[in-house]
Specification:
Elements: H1 6-11, H2 39-48, H3 60-73, E1 77-81, H4 84-95, E2 101-105, H5 110-122, E3 126-130, H6 135-141, E4 146-152, H7 164-173, E5 177-181, E6 199-203, E7 217-221, H8 223-236, H9 242-252, H10 255-274, E8 281-283, H11 293-299, E9 308-312, H12 317-326, E10 331-332, E11 342-344, H13 356-361, E12 368-372, H14 378-388
Parallel strand pairs: 2-3, 2-4, 4-5, 5-6, 10-11
Antiparallel strand pairs: 1-7, 6-7, 8-9, 9-12, 11-12
The chain binds pyridoxal-5'-phosphate (PLP).
Pyridoxal-5'-phosphate is lined by residues 83-85, 109, 152, 181, 183-184, 203, 205, 215, 217.
């Protein structure tokens, strides 16, 4: 057991820059494309010790941010990328070979789905999509060449939960790796490595930075796998830049304060919405009606489950538009995880390309609204939603 809590430890990670004699209270931003060396001896030593040379290879702000993420996720090592997609594509390109097979949750982030169907296809990697609600269905898709099993913790926007313990056991029985995207949940809610995941992805653009002012991504895994991924990242040119890393480092320092509050406010909002006469369904794991309640309670602790929720109102786009206009605080935004509560309409955005019949089978109707809960006062937010829902009277 660590001596201190993760939130305390994470605050003190990444502040010790190798070779720096001063001790600033917070890490400065190293806006430099390279570090200079004097003479062959220093050049040799710097390369031998994996010191700082060229920005694409290594940068102190990326190293520092990676140390904090490793601490929060409970992993050996983390690499920082220019975006969440940069982290995902680079990791897949580094770990997969032509002829390999991947099993992927059928209900994942749209662009990850496109990487699986378009980029991996070009690389000669076959992907089978499976509904992860039943682990037996995943087992049926396993082949001798299955190298990787991929999932998010909750599916967007229905918040269907994946039993990470069961899926990691299945992956390991078959010699495959389990790769989990923790963007929706963040390590403040759950650490997939504790459930057996081998590789964890975070889009740092979302909850971990939390301030909606920087794009970044991270992979957390073993030192050995990170070494493999790092050499491919260098070639693909996907590592993150120092300023974004610095901004995200600043944001992540308050993650353990912000995110639990966002998750608890989401619980309160879910409860209020579930009692509203115009709302036919609310998807949030805190609710007693959540279909996977027992599983959720066995996977999440006191910090909360998730600051995302979705709910269903009548299928009247004009009224939904009036509802969005009537809200005082939340705005429509094609992102999530910021300080302000934002919402989106899956049928006209993330799931626009999915046929209506398929969407309905997934529980996504034209009346569905997805919410990313911010740090507003819970009562103010609940009152704002209740007032705006009156447009359906
Ligand atoms: C679950 C999930 N994973 C990955 C990404 C990609 O992250 P980024 O936009 O930082 O590339 C997103 C973006 O919305 C996401 O929602």
């Amino acid at each position: 057991m660590p001596e201190y809590s993760v939130s305390t430890e994470a605050l003190y990670q990444g502040n010790h820059i190798r070779g720096m004699e001063m001790h600033p209270e917070t890490i400065p931003c190293f806006l430099t494309t390279a570090f200079t060396m004097k003479g062959f001896k220093e050049v040799q030593e710097t390369y031998d010790t994996k010191g700082y040379t060229y920005i694409r290879t290594r940068n102190p702000n990326r190293t520092a941010l990676g140390e904090v993420i490793s601490c929060l996720e409970g992993g050996e090592e983390s690499l920082v990328f220019s975006s969440g997609m940069g982290a995902i594509t680079t990791t897949l390109m580094a770990l997969l070979e032509p002829g390999d097979h991947v099993i992927c949750n059928a209900n994942i982030y749209g662009e990850t789905f496109c990487v699986m169907t378009q980029i991996l296809k070009k690389c000669g990697v076959e992907v089978t999509f499976v509904d992860y609600q039943n682990t037996e269905d995943i087992a049926k898709a396993v082949r001798p060449n299955t190298k990787l099993i991929y999932s998010e913790v909750f599916s967007n926007p229905t918040l269907t939960l994946v039993d990470l313990r069961a899926v990691s056991a299945l992956a390991h029985q078959n010699g495959a790796l389990l790769m989990v995207d923790n963007t929706f949940t963040s390590p403040i809610a759950i650490r997939p490595i504790d459930f057996g995941a081998d590789i964890v992805i975070n889009s740092l653009t979302k909850f971990l930075n939390g301030h909606s002012d920087a794009v970044g991504g991270a992979v957390t895994t073993t030192q050995a796998l990170c070494d493999k991924i790092q050499s491919v990242a260098m070639l693909l040119g996907t590592p993150g830049d120092p300023f974004s890393s610095w901004l995200i480092h600043r944001g992540i320092n308050t993650a353990s304060v912000r995110i639990p509050q966002q998750m608890h406010t989401a619980e309160r909002l879910a409860q209020v919405l579930s009692q509203n006469k115009h709302v036919s369904k609310v998807n949030h794991p805190s609710l007693p009606t959540y279909p996977q309640k027992e599983l959720a309670d066995s996977m999440f602790g006191k910090n909360g489950y998730c600051a995302m929720l979705s709910f269903i109102v009548p299928e009247d786009l004009e009224k939904i538009d009036q509802f969005m206009l009537a809200l005082k605080f939340p705005r429509y935004a094609p992102t999530l995880g910021g300080l302000h509560t934002t919402l989106s309409h899956p049928v006209t955005s993330s799931h626009m390309g999915v046929p209506d019949e398929t969407r309905r089978k997934m529980g996504i109707t034209p009346g569905m609204i997805r919410v990313s809960v911010g740090i507003e006062d819970a009562d103010d937010l609940a009152a704002d939603f209740e007032n705006a829902l009156k447009v359906f009277d």
